[in-house]
UniProtKB/TrEMBL annotation:
InterPro entries membership: Methyltransf_11 (IPR013216), SAM-dependent_MTases_sf (IPR029063), Thiol_S-MT (IPR052356)
Keywords: Membrane, Transmembrane, Transmembrane helix
Lineage: Eukaryota, Metazoa, Chordata, Craniata, Vertebrata
A Pfam family assignment: Methyltransf_11
Name used for this protein in its record: Thiol methyltransferase 1A
Gene source species: Maylandia zebra (zebra mbuna)
Superkingdom to which the source organism belongs: Eukaryota
Methyltransferase type domain residues: 74-171
Transmembrane segments: 7-31
GO molecular function ontology, one term from the record: S-adenosylmethionine-dependent methyltransferase activity
């Protein structure tokens, strides 16, 4: 089965040669301008299907607010702001994303979520949050982002660095399926095409291993099945305390 999987993946990779060339000559940047439009539509559908799971995940956010203060949340790869409706009222929010074209949609989403205090938007990758001070954030949120960062370990190191002691890193990520399943098989076959469709997304990434090795003092991690297209079903959800 492994040899067949690799052969079919190679065929898909060959079929993606035009996409490889577009990326090589720099024309892929045009897609990054269009991407926020696509993500804005997909995020609404994802939120409807994952509403209860997101609600369960984020219901414990208030536990990480410092006594007498505001809850400070920094979201890595905030996209169009699909998580904002789940954040506690009065939270102070810092948004980061490497794609500056998301800011328009962020502004619209913030207008619909006036229970939050919108602090700023920082154009930055998850691997480089130098604009944020050490030990300054109560909660870092990362959903459907670790699949597409270039360096997962560095992103988690940055999240750990900016969290105050006792702060928490919240995550909800799609991951590789079990090796014995057809989900795993087709994830690997379609990965070359999915990389471009998902703006650098690695659907075969075993993200839970990186989170487990990130050096947090306490980890609450669950493997869950999302009500999505079969190669997107495997997810991990939880939080890790610094």
């Amino acid at each position: 089965m492994t040899s067949v999987m690799r052969f079919l993946s190679s065929i898909v990779n060959i079929l993606c040669i035009p996409l490889h060339l577009i990326h090589a000559v720099g024309l892929y940047g045009i897609y990054k301008r269009i991407l926020p439009i696509c993500i804005n539509r997909m995020a609404k559908s994802y939120n409807k299907k994952m509403h209860d799971k997101k609600k369960d995940l984020f219901c414990v956010l208030p536990e990480f607010k410092k006594a007498g203060g505001q809850l400070t949340i920094l979201e890595i790869g905030c996209g169009t702001g699909a998580n904002f409706e789940f954040y506690p009222p009065g939270s102070r929010l810092i948004c980061t994303d490497p794609n500056p074209h998301f800011e328009k949609y962020l502004t619209e989403t913030m207008a619909k979520n006036d229970h939050l205090r919108y602090e700023r938007f920082v154009v930055a990758s998850g691997e480089d949050l130098r604009a944020v001070e050490d030990d300054s954030i109560d909660v870092v949120v990362c959903t459907l982002v670790l699949c597409s960062v270039d360096d997962v370990s560095q992103t988690l190191r940055e999240a750990h660095r900016i969290l105050r002691p006792g702060g928490a890193f919240f995550f909800l990520e799609h991951v590789a399926g079990d090796t014995s399943t057809w989900t795993y098989f087709f994830q690997h076959v379609l990965q070359p095409l999915w990389y471009y469709f998902g703006d650098g997304c690695w659907i075969v990434r075993e993200t839970w291993k990186y989170v487990e090795e990130a050096g947090f003092s306490d980890l609450k991690l669950r493997h869950i099945e999302a009500p999505l297209f079969f190669i997107m079903k495997p997810h991990i959800s939880g939080y890790a305390v610094k």
